[in-house]
Amino acid sequence: MEFRYLTPTYAVSPQILPEDVPALKAAGFVAVICNRPDAEIPDAICADNMRAVVEAAGMTFIENPLIPGAFTPDNIATQGRVQAETEGPVLAYCASGNRSSIAWAFSQAGKLPTDELIARPAKWGYDLEPFRARLSDLAQR
């Protein structure tokens, strides 16, 4: 499993599986954000099942489902709150890691320059350039 670090304490990844959880714990993650809606995935890896496995390993699990193209202010606030309040590394996952990267960038708008919010995910192949205007708008709030 590859952890795609956007900051020293925030990484994204594609969908995790129950058997990946020991590697997450060994890598030092203390919290896991599920950005994938249950409607997209089989029951075996739905949020409730992943929560049980992650929490049994001693990590915090946060369910923050992101619907492509329809992120809410609450989604963005949750992503930012978890990053700000968690003492230790956070892993956010979705289908590919892209939505988790976008949510990170939106939640950090105004804290980091827009160019940096686009460049960090780009190192992992995530194209946030189409979100430049929204990132700039969020930075002004």
Indicate the CATH architecture. Alpha-Beta Complex
Oligomer kind: single chain
Order of SSEs, N→C?
A: EEHEHEHEHHH
Radius of gyration: 14 Å
Q: Please, what is the average pLDDT? A: 95
Helix and strand content put the structural class at alpha/beta
Text of the CATH class: Alpha Beta
The proportion of residues in beta strands is 5-15%
Largest sheet composition: 5 strands, mixed
Count of domains: 1
Gap between N and C termini = 36 Å
Helix percent reads 40-55%
The CATH fourth-level homologous superfamily: Protein tyrosine phosphatase superfamily
Strand order, sheet with most strands:
1-2-5-3-4
- For this structure, the CATH topology is Protein-Tyrosine Phosphatase, Chain A
Number of helices: 6
Shape: globular
- Runs in which pLDDT lies below 50 for 5 or more consecutive residues are none
- Using DSSP, what is the number of strands? 5
Keywords: Transferase
Pfam family, one: BLH_phosphatase
Protein name: TIGR01244 family sulfur transferase
GO molecular function: transferase activity
Characterization of this structure:
This is TIGR01244 family sulfur transferase. Keywords: Transferase. InterPro entries: BLH_phosphatase-like, Prot-tyrosine_phosphatase-like. Pfam families: BLH_phosphatase. The chain is of the alpha/beta class and 141 residues long. The chain has a single domain, classed as Protein-Tyrosine Phosphatase, Chain A. Strands 1-2-5-3-4 form a five-stranded mixed β-sheet, sandwiched between helices. The N and C termini lie far apart (36 Å).
